[in-house]
Design a protein that fits this description.
By secondary structure, the protein is an all-alpha fold. It contains 10 helices and no strands. Helix 5 packs across helix 8, helix 7 packs across helix 9 and helix 8 crosses helix 9.
Length: 176
């Protein structure tokens, strides 16, 4: 009688595989989402939403040619959906909470000005600029992530850079 080794038939540990994927991609996903939203809290929420959806369909994500591109596409779609769904109303309080001392370094001011200028771009142009110049993807990789042609990426990047060159935030160095 042939004895079957349980390790040979046991499915691989998908949770551990996804955990490694998630831990390796989290900072880049948050950075990408921050570029799309301009808000750290929204960026973390979007990254978490994208990873939750990726976990639910981990078999499809893992089988994709480029799992990173697949998850970034999920993140882009989640960002578009957040404008369609009803928002939780904010509650204003009578007392102002204690605020942390703002860091006044020039680096943060320049970064704030850049994010403010990016927020003036249409969503598609913003995504192209962030993928190409912030995350360093090639035109072909950016086109694959966004589901469009390389020519479209080139034209969107060209238009976005032209708008950024004339941006008041970048000229003045201060966010609006």
């Amino acid at each position: 009688m042939t004895r079957i080794d349980p390790a040979a038939v046991a499915p691989p540990d998908h949770d551990a595989e996804f955990r490694d994927f998630m831990l390796g991609r989290w900072p880049a996903l948050v950075r990408f989402a921050y570029g799309l939203t301009g808000d750290r809290g929204h960026a973390e929420d979007l990254a978490q939403t994208a990873l939750a959806k990726a976990y639910a369909g981990w078999g499809r994500v893992r089988a994709a040619d480029d799992p990173d591109a697949y998850v970034r596409k999920i993140l882009i779609n989640a960002n578009h959906r957040r404008f369609r769904s009803p928002r939780v109303p904010e509650r204003f309080t009578a007392a102002v909470p204690d605020l942390a001392v703002a860091d006044g370094t020039r680096f943060l001011d320049e970064r704030s000005a850049l994010v403010a200028a990016l927020m003036e771009l249409p969503p598609r142009q913003r995504a192209v600029v962030i993928l190409r110049y912030w995350d360093g993807y090639t035109e072909a990789q950016t086109a694959a992530i966004l589901g469009c042609s390389v020519g479209n990426v080139k034209s969107q990047a060209s238009r976005a850079l032209a708008k950024l060159r004339t941006s008041a935030q970048l000229r003045d160095g201060s966010p609006a």
